Amino acid sequence: MKYLGVTIRFKDLSDDNKEIMIALLDSLSFEGITELEGSVIAYIPVEQYNRKELENLLKTDNIIQKVEIESEEEIEEKNWNQEWEKNFDPVIVDNLCAIRAPFHPEFKNFKYVINIEPKMSFGTGHHETTSLMVSAMLKMDFANKAVLDMGCGTGLLAILASKMGAKEIVAIDIDKWAYENTLENMERNKVKMHIIEGGEESIPDKSFDVLLANINRNILIQQSQSYSNHLKENGTLLLSGILEEDIPVVLKTFNGLGFSSVQIQSKGNWQMIELKKQV
């Protein structure tokens, strides 16, 4: 299969801008990213590439002025799994949860061990937003709860919820690669959950005790009404993919829907907000 390597150069080079870009590309059909000094190369099958779609995506996060599509070069398919094995180290969160790949040694003496074959999906625990979500979850009670994981990526958060005792779990991602990866990781971890390929329109007609959404500010705000509609009264909403400067607009949106802020946790410039739906 022929792939296209799309080089995106940063006019304003900062770790935050690069992380935002990687998160945005994850929502399209890109299947791998190589980080370089001042740029990233994103890989996508030639027949799936749509430059206009990419440009529109960049505009949604108001960072189009900070980046530019520099080149589009056709390349041969990479061995993506081999690339991941070179760069994916185990992750330990709060000395309670170990996140490992099949090629890592077995872990013992951790309350929760999650086995993830990451492939090209977002959510390995390495990114600050994922580890913030995991850390917040480890302090919660999931016993017999109904949980919705929006933008599930690898399925890591949904799998953790299951291991923590959730009785019903729905994991949704609009990206086909993430959907398939979550299916594989569900089987790998011997847990049960309902996995859906789609967006907010795919949320089942029911209410949940806990809703997890580690996406980005614009999508969180765009889908805020759906989150409110599908969360029980006194239900818990965990949000991440948010930068420090995004907090006021995110809180304003969700406060306007009847949510109250419980806590805000930070890692670097990335934030996790825990909200409670008011009665």
Structural features:
Alpha-Beta Plaits, Rossmann fold, single chain, 14 strands, 4-stranded antiparallel beta sheet, 279 residues, 2 domains
What's the short version?
This protein is an alpha/beta fold. Helix content is 29%, strand content 34%.
Mean of residue pLDDT? 85
Give the overall silhouette.
globular
CATH class of the largest domain: Alpha Beta
Q: Can you name the CATH architecture of the largest domain?
A: 3-Layer(aba) Sandwich
CATH superfamily of the largest domain: Vaccinia Virus protein VP39
Strand order in space, largest sheet: 10-9-8-11-12-14-13
Order of helices and strands: EHEEHEHEEEHEHEHEEHHEHEE
Helix/strand structural class: alpha/beta
Name the poorly predicted regions.
Answer: none
Instruction: Write down how many β-strands occur, each being a DSSP E stretch of 2 or more residues.
Output: 14
The count of helical stretches stands at 9
What is the CA–CA distance across the termini?
Answer: 53 Å
At the fold tier of CATH, the topology name of the largest domain is: Rossmann fold
Helix content: 25-40%
What is the alpha-carbon Rg in Å?
18 Å
Beta-strand content estimate: 25-35%
Domain unit count: 2
Task: Tell me about the largest β-sheet.
Answer: 7 strands, mixed
